[in-house]
TrEMBL record:
Its cofactor is Fe(2+). It comes from Acacia crassicarpa (northern wattle). The lineage of its organism: Eukaryota, Viridiplantae, Streptophyta, Embryophyta, Tracheophyta. Fe cation binds at residues 234, 284, 351, 541. One of its GO terms (cellular component) is chloroplast. One of its GO terms (molecular function) is carotenoid dioxygenase activity. This is Carotenoid cleavage dioxygenase 8. Residues 42-53 have a biased composition (Pro residues). One of its GO terms (biological process) is carotene catabolic process. Keywords: Dioxygenase, Iron, Metal-binding, Oxidoreductase. PANTHER family: BETA-CAROTENE DIOXYGENASE, CAROTENOID ISOMEROOXYGENASE. InterPro entries: Carotenoid_Oase.
Amino acid sequence: MALSDHTNKKSALPSFLTKNGLFRTQRPFHHPYLSVTNVASPSPPIAPPPLTPPKRSDTTGGPHHPAWTSIPQERWEGELHVQGQIPLWLKGTYLRNGPGLWHIGDYNFRHLFDGYATLVKLHFENGRLIAGHRQLESQAYQASKKNQKLCYREFSEVPKHDNFLAYVGELANLFSGASLTDNANTGVTKLGDGRVVCLTETQKGSYVIDPNTLETLGRFEYGDTLGGLIHSAHPIVTDEEFLTLLPDLIKPGYLVVRMEAGSNERKVIGRVDCRGGPAPGWVHSFPVTEHYIVVPEMPLRYCAQNLLRAEPTPLYKFEWHPESKAFMHVMCRSSGNIVASVEVPLFVTFHYINAYEEEDEDGRVTAIIADCCEHSADTTILDKLRLNNLRSFNGQDVLPDARVGRFRIPMNGSEYGILEAALEPNEHGRGMDMCSINPNYLGKKYRYAYACGAQRPCNFPNTLTKVDLEEKKAKNWYEEGAVPSEPFFVARPGATEEDDGVVISMVSEGNGEAFALLLDGSSFEEIARAKFPYGMPYGLHGCWVPKH
């Protein structure tokens, strides 16, 4: 495995400018489709966070890695000192969303996905880098802050009740969706009309933010009557449209819906009925091609019974049904018709990388190729993400194997599809998640993907990897003790090569520090880094907002 020889450069104190800890004054943001509810109240002036955030102890008695430690304060902004050179063409803001606060008072959350959303920005302009973070002011976060206790159901957490009647009332609210969280801690995306929205698995957890100040502007209200409580946390978003899946838990299946840029109204393209199991499979994400939408039916299925439990099971809100089998459905974008539905080997994935159409010499589509970060049909990955597991790494190699899983879905009426590794998994350390591609290749035949891989032994993906799907090779970036977040590719304006651009990541270091990292998209060599003045928790998914 090709690993870089970069080493951590130590300095007595990180270099940064705090701008007195204040955000720049922004004009109010208005939009006709924005429901301004639960908007953040004006914040008092803030001081920069401590250079060394307070260390908490895990069950082993040692300090937490900053990746799994709550952010030291609600908000901060300042200019970072850059080592290396930021390309002058890189003008815009990288936004990253993810859980960043895992405790309320003395109560500590259990799972990585429970944490309250922390937005981080990296603004690039004229070779300079302005960074900042801010807590998303969801209703769930504001209620917990006010009451100093959990008030909504998170991924693994359930509010504690004073008496049985309160518990019964909370269950009633669960069926209406009122007690489900709106903690939008999973992703952030720029819509075609310029609005920037934070998302999670619950539909109510959709919030519009200001990409400059990171201020929470209000809840994104869907202007239709489709209803439902959940949706895919990863819609497909382009300048023209927003595509997502709405799982139907009553009559197991999925609605495939589309929302035009500038609108809040989702319109149904079509419906897919599940072919197996008591409930639809979890659809955290899904892929598309130029003419088709691929709807996966994974045997890791939603489970209403687990949703009602006061204590989590190892699979949380889901249940593994291998007997129900696994399927891939292909829907025509224009007609909504199902043009292929095949059984595939059992699989477990959170994230699809991309998909494209394979054609014969006459231009007829013969198959759909869909790639994902596949966890070898091993559901234990969910429980490995308990904070106690992440915080208590003892040198044992406990990260479950993962690969670039490549589905081949025939379009000739065949009953079966193929799932195999797109390249030898040892090329990327048998770790594979948190992926991105050149967005100009969405739904098209592509060559490169960027993701988090593994340098073993480890308990979590700890490398950045560039996968070459033609040569079936990978280039890997690694620093001992570091936990990098999703590598996000930004194409150079006017580029003609697929990998001509930069890869942005944020890295939490084992020494309690953190830095922003830029890699060359082609060579995968480091071109710049900039230290934060505090440890940065791990984050999930991001987006790019170009400066025009």
